[in-house]
Write a structure and sequence with these properties.
By secondary structure, the protein is mainly β. It has helices at residues 10-17, 28-32, 299-304; strands at residues 53-62, 65-67, 70-73, 78-91, 96-110, 127-140, 144-154, 163-172, 189-197, 213-219, 222-227, 236-240, 243-250, 263-275, 285-297, 310-321. It is globular and about 60 Å long.
């Protein structure tokens, strides 16, 4: 239930504050390797239509998969491939500088229990999750971006019923505020997600009873660690330290009695990224990422995670920008 690179807003708040945890479905994997999403989704004008579409192919391996603090899998191989497309439709010079469309698809394939316990018989049992999103985003001259997305979280192997959601993410690009200091900014984000059909907490035993509203906050400070080697072609290595927190505005973290936890989770990580400059640019911009995230769970989320309120999540990934 994590979508990565949902737009120019630091992966749109790590896709609305989730991303697989390794992003916590919009969690750690998403947060960690939401590195593939740190780009502007709508920066080209209509006159440049030939170049108005860019995107990212990505693939991550993670040790745990959380979605906004809700455990999905913590055993076996967890492989999460995705594709994100950004279509720049308009560019201007006023208060609003760009408008674009966002399209994407994200998957999670498991060799553990959730990769074999689904009810569907006509799809690979390992295909736990397949998500689709479509949306749009606006960029403002002041450095703010706003993105709105409709998302369908589906389970090809029948592990859970389809969930539909509308989310809005607001982010700020403050990377230009710090000059040549080597600090890439805080990249703060705010996410609001409204379930319109189905429930993310349906997997609880017993499950929640109402559709909910999620609120997420995040920052992703980034630092330059220098270059590997010398010369213009030497790749620059960066360190990101994403911090995210998720809350229930209404009925998002319910238990079987309908009691709702206001605070769901928070996490903090360290993610190292390095471009593969040896790959010819005609094959796209290749980037390797690796990171570790500490996830802290509260209340019902802790109960669902085998009564464990703390987890360390490791993720490695490869992204190709085109």
């Amino acid at each position: 239930m994590t979508i990565q690179g949902a737009a120019s807003i630091a992966a749109i708040a790590a896709f609305a504050a989730s991303a697989p945890v390794a992003s916590a479905q919009e969690g750690v994997a998403g947060t960690l390797v939401g590195a593939s999403a740190g780009r502007s989704a709508a920066t080209l004008s209509v006159e440049e239509a030939d170049d108005a579409i860019d995107g990212t192919l990505s693939a991550d391996l993670t040790t745990h998969y959380f979605f906004r603090g809700l455990i999905q899998e913590d055993q076996g191989v967890i492989f999460q491939p995705a594709i994100d497309l950004n279509v720049g439709l308009w560019e201007g010079e006023g208060d609003v500088t760009a408008f674009g469309l966002l399209l994407g698809q994200w998957n999670s394939l498991h060799s553990g229990p959730t990769g074999s316990s689904g009810s569907a018989s006509n799809s690979p049992s390992s295909w736990y999750e397949s998500d689709f999103y479509v949306g749009c985003n606006l960029d403002f001259a002041a450095g703010f971006s706003v993105a709105a997305n409709w998302v369908a979280y589906t389970s090809p192997n029948g592990s859970y019923d389809t969930i539909n959601e509308i989310n809005v993410a607001i982010g700020m690009d403050d990377s230009g505020w710090y000059g040549e200091s080597g600090f890439g900014g805080l990249a703060p984000t705010l996410t609001l997600a409204l379930e319109t059909d189905g429930q993310t907490d349906q997997g609880a035993e017993p499950s929640g009873t109402d559709q909910g509203i999620f609120v997420g906050f995040g920052i992703a400070p980034e630092f330059s660690l220098g270059t590997l080697g010398e010369g213009d072609a030497a790749p620059e290595v960066t360190l990101a330290v994403p911090v995210n927190a998720g809350f229930s505005f209404s009925d998002y973290y319910e238990d079987g009695d309908g009691d709702d936890d206001r605070f769901g989770y928070w996490d903090v990580g360290g993610v190292v990224s390095m471009p593969l400059s040896s790959v010819p640019t005609r094959f796209g911009d290749w980037t390797l990422t690796a990171g570790v995230t500490a996830v802290f769970l509260s209340g019902n989320q802790k109960d669902l995670n085998h009564d464990e309120g703390f987890e360390l999540v490791g993720t490695v990934g490869l992204s190709i920008g085109f």
